[in-house]
Each structure stands twice: as C-alpha cells, then as structure tokens.
C-alpha cells in the first residue's frame, strides 16, 4: 500500500507503528520537553541504578580513561546525546583540574538542550571551550576537524535502546568518522539479577509509568489524538535469555482511538499492548563481539563496585 504524505518522520513512524501488529511506537519519541524532564527524574530514582553506577565508574576511573590520550596534545571530547551532561561534568571537572587542552562538543538533536547546556557550562566553567551541535550524531561527527584526536562519549546505556542491527550499524558508522587511535567510551548496562533490572523500569513512585504514558500525551497534543490515559497502563517486563527489558502500554479495555493528524483510527483489544521500548543488557562476551564486529579494539572495561554497569574504552 502507498503511504499517505506525512509532514514529519514522527507522523510517519506513528502511522506505521500503530498499523503494525503487534503495535509499537519508537522510544526515541519519549524525549519531548516533558519527556526530557521525566527522564531526569528517572535518573534520580533509587531503583534506576544505571546512573549512579556509571557515575561511580567515571568518578573512579577518569584518570585511567584519559590516560589513553596523549597528555599534551589538544583533543575533542564529543558527547553524543549529552542532555544535561550531568555525568560528563565529572570528566569536565577532572580535565579542567588537570589543565587539559580540549574542546567539549556536546551533541544533541534538541537545539533547546544544546543551547541550555552550553550556556550553563559557560557560566559554571568560564573559560571552557564548548561547541554545542544540535545535529544528527553522524553529521556532527563528520563536520569536526580531523586535526585533533577525538574521544567520543556514548554514555548512559543509550546503546541499549537500539535494535541489534541498529547497534552494529551505529558502531560502524561512528568508526567511519574516526581516525586511527581515536577513542570511543560506551556505557553498557550489564546482565544481572532480573529483579534488579525489572525494578529499574517499574519504580515505586510510578515515574517510569508517567514517562511511558507521556508518549500518548505527545500524540494527543501533536497529532490531535484522543488516547484516554486512564485506560492504558505501563507494562514492563524483563526477558532474561535475551537480556531485554521491554516496556509496553497495555490497553485496559477494548477501545478505539482517533488520530486525525495522520488520518488514522485504530482499535485495541482489552489487554492488547503497544510496544514502546527495549533496553538491552550485555555481558562482556557480547561487548567483545560487538567491538570485533564493528572493527574496534577494546582497551579497557571498567565496572562499578556492584558490577551492574560497564564503561568500555574502544580504540579505532
Ligand atoms: C535512555 N535509556 C538508556 C533509558 C533506558 O534505561 O533504556 C531510557 C529509560 N526508559 C525507561 N527508563 C529509562
């Protein structure tokens, strides 16, 4: 069937996802202004161990991480999906204290996030060289000077939100923008006790539920839909063999929803799910395999005291 003409990728993706079976929505659409704020709340939750674990690693291992760069040469620290750069500040503090010669380049699709971050960093650090880029990751990486060495950050287990194919493609694409000896620091959430993982996506205060439901709110607002949020519920699950934490929205009754902005009406059965997110968990064998398949050499794997999370240093 020929697809109707859409005004944006969002419209097209919502149309395709909600006409599929099982229905799905892409998790990248969580991050509108409200979603960004709810995600910040998630990162403060006791159950969401990912943030504190990665913070611990970066704090304890910052000297080792930067020891893989030549100490005197100026370099570019590129932060993909920087957001509010909360964790990166640990690294920035260290580099400034070491009087390192570097340019910090936060990259985020949201121009608003990049502008806010750039001015807040300039306020906090005075003479830090910051060049914020609100672009797709790859075009940002391709636009940078090839003269200086690069350390690319991809923190927070964002890699876990890609499909398996997207993961390898992404890593290979990044590789193609790097020079020999450039570095990539990636955050991976590790496989562990399933209850610990499930709790991270099913917090007591219901913040993650609000995050998930916000996607329907966004479709209501931007596409004029009439999702009734009282009749959908956050439905998290963890599939241990696959290492996949999944989130869905389950319909609490048989219902119809109209989405005039994309000229679509859908029906949901009672108990039918709309898949909204996969968060992949890794072990060290899988991390090694990913690095090999995309052409990198692993220089080090750092973990936190609970062995919940890993930051892996890769060299092109
Ligand atoms: C951004 N990303 C790594 C988070 C995760 O853990 O997959 C998004 C998230 N979804 C629910 N809670 C947090």
TrEMBL record:
Methyltransferase among keywords: yes
GO molecular function: methyltransferase activity
Matches recorded under Gene3D superfamilies: Vaccinia Virus protein VP39
Keyword presence, NAD: no
Name of one Pfam family that matches: Methyltransf_33
Residues in Histidine-specific methyltransferase SAM-dependent domain copies: 10-315
Keyword annotations from UniProtKB, A to Z: Methyltransferase, Transferase
Domain of life: Bacteria
Biological-process GO terms, alphabetical: methylation
InterPro entries (alphabetical): EgtD, EgtD_Methyltrsf_superfamily, MeTrfase_dom, MeTrfase_EgtD-like, SAM-dependent_MTases_sf
Database matches in PANTHER family: ERGOTHIONEINE BIOSYNTHESIS PROTEIN 1 (PTHR43397)
Entry protein name: L-histidine N(Alpha)-methyltransferase
Gene source species: Christiangramia fulva
Gene name tied to this protein: egtD
């Amino acid at each position: 069937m020929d697809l109707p003409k859409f005004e944006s990728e969002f419209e097209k993706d919502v149309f395709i996802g909600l006409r599929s079976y099982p229905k799905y929505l892409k998790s990248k659409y969580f991050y509108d202004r409200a979603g960004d704020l709810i995600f910040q709340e998630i990162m403060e939750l006791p159950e969401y161990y990912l943030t504190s674990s990665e913070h611990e690693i970066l704090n304890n291992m910052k000297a080792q991480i930067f020891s893989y760069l030549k100490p005197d040469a100026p370099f570019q620290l590129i932060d993909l999906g920087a957001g509010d750069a909360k964790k990166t500040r640990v690294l920035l503090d260290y580099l400034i204290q070491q009087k390192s010669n570097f340019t910090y380049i936060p990259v985020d699709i949201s121009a608003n996030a990049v502008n806010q971050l750039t001015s807040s960093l300039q306020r906090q650090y005075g003479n830090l060289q910051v060049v914020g880029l609100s672009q797709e990751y790859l075009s940002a990486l391709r636009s940078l000077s090839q003269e200086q060495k690069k350390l690319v950050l991809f923190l927070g287990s964002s890699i876990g939100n890609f499909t398996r194919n997207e993961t390898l493609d992404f890593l290979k694409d990044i590789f193609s923008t790097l020079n020999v000896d450039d570095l990539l620091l990636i955050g991976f959430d590790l496989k562990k006790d399933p209850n610990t993982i499930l709790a991270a996506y099913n917090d007591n205060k219901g913040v993650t539920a609000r995050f998930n439901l916000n996607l329907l709110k966004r479709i209501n607002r931007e596409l004029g839909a009439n999702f009734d949020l009282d009749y959908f519920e956050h439905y998290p699950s963890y599939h241990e063999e696959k290492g996949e934490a999944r989130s869905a929205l389950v319909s609490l009754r048989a219902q119809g929803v109209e989405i005039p902005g994309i000229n679509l009406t859908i029906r949901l059965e009672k108990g039918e799910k709309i898949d909204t997110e996969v968060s992949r968990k890794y072990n060290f064998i899988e991390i090694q395999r990913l690095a090999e398949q995309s052409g990198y050499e692993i220089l080090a794997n750092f973990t936190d005291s609970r062995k919940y999370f890993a930051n892996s240093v890769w060299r092109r």
